[in-house]
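lol ok so funny story. i was supposed to be doing the assay writeup but got distracted and ended up predicting the structure for this chain instead. priorities right. anyway since i did it might as well share w the group, maybe its usefull for someone
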Amino acid sequence: MSFNAYLTNIEAKTGKSADDLRTEAMAKGLADEAGLKAGVKAGQVVDWLKTEYDLGHGHAMAIVAYLKGKRD
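and the output, tada:
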């Protein structure tokens, strides 16, 4: 599955785009403009997305990659 397919599937499941989830991650103190906030581990983001949005590990990791700057 391509990276963009992951993002499309995430939006279909959650109703939130990757940018929406980035904004939420920033509001929760997990990310900032540069990516993951200093000291935040990918697992913290994964746990949040699994708990709040019932995302699987691979889809949650796609959002981690998005937060770190991956776009394609």
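DSSP finds four helices and two strands in the chain. The chain has one domain: 3-67.
back to the writeup now i swear
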